[in-house]
C-alpha cells in the first residue's frame, strides 16, 4: 500500500517540477553570464551545461519516451549526455549560450506540462504513479544540488543568500543510541517515486549497534585535527593515508587556519568555523579516520537505514525517521531553505523513534558501505542511473543535505561517490557494535 494518496500524485508531480524549476532559475540567474559559462572547478560542469542538461533529460524522458515525440534538437544530445564527455571537458563543447539554454529548457517544460496533463498515471511502469515525472523532478533537484556545489567552489563575491537555521541550545541528550538487533526491512517496493537502486524491499538481519544521536560536529572534528589526526598513520586506511599525504590535506575543504582559529569560506563569505554545526566537506577517508581515532567506526548502510526507519514498536520500516509524513520545515533542514547545516541537536520533531536526530537533511552522511545492488535489483529505466556505478569504487552516502529538495530525499534514498570526494555536502556520524 502506497503511503501517498494516488489521487494527488498528479498535483504532486506538477508541484515537484515547478519547485525544481524555481530553484534552477535562482541558481542560474544570481550570477552574470560569464560565471554561468566558466568552469569553476575541473570537478564540475559550467552551470550553463547543467541548465541545458536538465532540459535535455526532461525532453528525453517526458517528451520522447513517455509521449513518443520526435527530438526537438537531436544535434545537442551528445553535448548533454553525461557519459559522452567528462565534466572537465564540458567547457570546450559548443554549449548553448545561457539565453538559448534557458529558452530550450522552458520550451521543453511547456510541452512536458501538456504531457503531464494528458498522461494517465497507470499502465506501463514508466507512467505508473507518475514515476517518470517524479524521476525528472528528482533529476532536476539533484542537479540543483550539483549547481550549489559549483556555487560553493566559485571564487568571488557572495551571490546567494538565505536565512540561517534557528539557533538551538547545545544538544544535551545521550551521545549515542542503542538500536536493538533483529530483522529489518530495507529498501522499498511501495514508494512511488523511489529510484531503481532503492528497490526492492527486502529483509536484513542486523546485530545490535550503537549510533551517534547527532552528526559529528566541527568542534569534535577539530579535536581530531588538534590531536594530530592528519599526521598519524594509525587512523587511516593505506589508500586514505596515501591520498592525504599526496594532496597535503590537513582539514576539511574550505577551511584555513588563521592564528589560533579555523576559518572557512562559505558561498563567498569567510567565517569562523561554527563549533556546533555538523562537519561538512570531508571525504570518506577523513570520516573513516576520525571514527577510528574516536575508537568507533562508520555505520554500515544497513545500520544507517535501520536507525532511520525501524520502528521498534511495530517492527515496520517508516518512510522517514519521524513517520510516513512528508518532510516539513519542523522535521529537517532540506531544500536550500538555509545554505548551511543546522546545529547538532536541531529538529527534535524529526528524530527517529529511538531518538536519533538529523538523519534526514543537514549533511549527507558517509557510510562504511560500497554502492551495491539490493537482491532482486533491476535497472529502471536506464542502466546509467545506478547500475554502471555499482562496485567497490563508490561509497554510499545517506540522508540528504541542506541542499537537496524533499522530492529527492527519503529514508531509502541512496547517494554515492568516490571516497576522495569532498566538494559535496558530506559529513558523517559514527557507530560501534553494541
Ligand atoms: C546520484 C548524485 C551520484 O550527480 O552523478 C544526476 C545524480 N544522475 N544525473 C550524480 C544524477 C544523473 C548522481 N548522483
Ligand atoms: Fe544528470
TrEMBL record:
Claim: Metal-binding is one of the keywords in the record: yes
Reactions that this protein is recorded to catalyse: gamma-L-glutamyl-L-cysteine + hercynine + O2 = gamma-L-glutamyl-hercynylcysteine S-oxide + H2O
Positions with a binding annotation for gamma-L-glutamyl-L-cysteine: 87-90, 417, 421
Binding site for Fe cation: 53, 139, 143
Associated pathway: Amino-acid biosynthesis; ergothioneine biosynthesis
Region (Disordered): 304-342
Annotated function: Catalyzes the oxidative sulfurization of hercynine (N-alpha,N-alpha,N-alpha-trimethyl-L-histidine) into hercynyl-gamma-L-glutamyl-L-cysteine sulfoxide, a step in the biosynthesis pathway of ergothioneine.
Name the UniProt record assigns to this protein: Hercynine oxygenase
Amino acid at each position: 500500500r502506497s503511503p501517498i494518496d494516488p489521487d494527488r500524485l498528479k498535483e504532486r508531480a506538477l508541484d515537484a517540477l515547478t519547485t525544481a524549476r524555481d530553484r534552477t532559475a535562482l541558481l542560474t540567474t544570481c550570477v552574470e553570464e560569464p560565471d554561468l559559462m566558466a568552469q569553476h572547478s575541473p570537478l564540475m560542469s559550467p552551470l550553463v551545461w547543467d541548465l541545458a542538461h536538465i532540459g535535455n533529460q526532461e525532453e528525453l524522458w517526458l517528451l520522447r519516451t513517455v509521449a513518443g515525440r520526435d527530438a526537438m534538437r537531436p544535434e545537442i544530445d551528445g553535448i548533454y549526455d553525461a557519459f559522452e564527455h567528462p565534466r572537465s571537458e564540458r567547457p570546450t563543447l559548443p554549449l548553448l549560450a545561457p539565453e538559448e539554454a534557458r529558452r530550450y529548457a522552458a520550451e521543453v517544460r511547456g510541452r512536458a506540462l501538456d504531457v503531464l496533463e494528458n498522461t494517465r498515471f497507470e499502465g506501463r511502469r514508466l507512467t505508473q504513479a507518475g514515476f517518470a515525472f517524479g524521476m525528472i523532478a528528482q533529476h532536476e533537484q539533484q542537479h540543483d544540488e550539483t549547481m550549489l556545489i559549483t556555487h560553493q567552489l566559485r571564487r568571488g563575491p557572495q551571490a546567494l543568500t538565505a536565512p540561517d537555521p534557528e539557533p538551538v541550545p547545545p544538544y544535551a541528550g545521550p551521545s549515542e543510541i542503542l538500536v536493538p538487533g533483529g530483522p529489518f526491512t530495507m529498501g522499498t517496493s511501495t514508494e512511488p517515486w523511489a529510484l531503481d537502486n532503492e528497490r526492492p524491499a527486502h529483509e536484513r538481519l542486523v546485530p545490535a549497534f550503537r549510533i551517534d544521536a547527532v552528526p559529528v560536529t566541527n568542534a569534535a572534528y577539530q579535536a581530531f585535527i588538534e590531536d594530530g589526526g592528519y599526521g598519524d598513520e594509525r587512523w587511516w586506511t593505506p589508500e586514505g593515508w596515501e591520498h592525504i599525504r599526496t594532496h597535503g590535506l590537513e582539514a576539511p575543504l574550505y577551511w584555513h587556519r588563521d592564528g589560533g582559529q579555523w576559518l572557512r569560506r562559505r558561498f563567498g563569505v569567510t567565517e569562523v568555523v561554527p563549533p556546533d554545526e555538523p562537519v561538512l566537506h570531508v571525504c570518506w577517508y577523513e570520516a573513516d579516520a576520525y571514527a577510528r581515532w574516536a575508537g568507533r567506526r562508520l555505520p554500515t548502510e544497513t545500520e544507517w537505514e535501520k536507525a532511520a526507519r525501524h520502528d521498534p514498536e511495530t517492527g515496520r520500516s517508516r518512510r522517514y525517521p519521524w513517520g510516513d509524513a512528508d518532510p516539513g520545515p519542523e522535521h529537517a533542514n532540506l531544500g536550500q531553505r538555509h545554505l548551511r547545516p543546522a546545529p547538532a541537536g536541531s529538529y527534535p520533531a524529526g528524530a527517529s523513534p529511538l531518538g536519533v536526530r538529523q538523519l534526514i537533511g543537514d549533511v549527507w552522511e558517509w557510510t562504511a558501505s560500497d554502492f551495491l545492488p539490493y537482491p532482486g535489483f533491476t535497472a529502471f529505466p536506464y542502466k546509467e542511473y545506478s547500475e554502471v556505478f555499482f562496485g567497490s569504487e563508490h561509497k554510499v552516502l545517506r540522508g540528504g543535505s541542506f541542499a537537496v529538495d524533499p522530492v529527492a530525499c527519503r529514508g531509502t534514498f541512496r547517494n554515492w561517490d568516490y571516497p576522495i570526494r569532498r566538494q559535496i555536502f558530506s559529513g558523517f556520524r559514527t557507530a560501534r557494535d553494541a
